[in-house]
Amino acid sequence: MNKTKIEWCDWTWNPVTGCLNNCEYCYAKKIANRFGNTFEPKFKSNRLDEPKYLKKPQNIFVCSMADLFGEWIPDEWIKTIFEATNKALQHTYIYLTKNPDRYYQLGEGDEKIIPDKGVKGWFGASASTEEQAQAAWENLNCTWMSLEPLHGEFSEEFFSHDNRYTQQMEARWKWIVIGAESGNRKNKVIPKREWIEQIINVCREWNIPVFIKDSLADIWGEPLIQEFPWEDKKT
Q: 120 and 86 in contact (C-beta within 8 Å)?
């Protein structure tokens, strides 16, 4: 496990590394290439017990160097990782994917990927535009969004939904994280301040905690809003 500079977690834990999404702005692939490593998905069973050795509660980002829910990941890898988290329940486990459709397997049925003892965690999706985030919006097992790198506006409708049981409008998300693209890629998109303002205003309307990453500090120009939907365990 590694201490990390990612502001919303304390540690990154990578029992799986590698990803086939091939995002042009991927920081993880750049890190792998820098050290001469391929980015083919690999399962690293020797890392499974690492959370147990952290006795104090921590915020742990699971698979920061992979997409654990990519369609190429075997069900058994995911189940095994969930079983490892169940042996260290003092921590808050945080997941991100570009493939939120896989979260349907967190429910019941023959295709479920959760162990018999269940699973603890915050399951989120990463998207740069509202169009990219549509699959996450439709899947209620996805509870938070990382809008990073932010590449455009998000509508007010994106932050609410009609509860199928009560027929009342409710907040769609339990947490929103916003960030800008790092590096100096040729076609890098610089977020506009009004895009951030729109997100903040709607999150305030629906009482959704929001976390602005340091990468937006210059654009935001004010003290950063950095809220958690749970008690922050940083030490």
A: yes
Three-state DSSP at 42 gives strand
* Dist. CA 151–CA 179, nearest whole Å: 10
**Can you read off the two tokens belonging to residue 159?**
């932050």
Domains and CATH numbers, the chain: 2-220 (3.20.20)
Provide the 3-class DSSP secondary structure of residue 165: coil
Can you say whether the dihedral through the CA atoms of 145, 61, 140, 202 is positive or negative?
A: negative
For residue 204, what are its two tokens?
Answer: 């305030």
pTM of the model: 0.91
Length of the chain: 235
| CA pair distance 52, 43, nearest whole angstrom | 19
Q: What is the pLDDT of residues 16-74, one digit of tens each?
A: 999 988 777 666 677 766 666 778 999 999 999 999 999 999 999 999 999 999 999 99
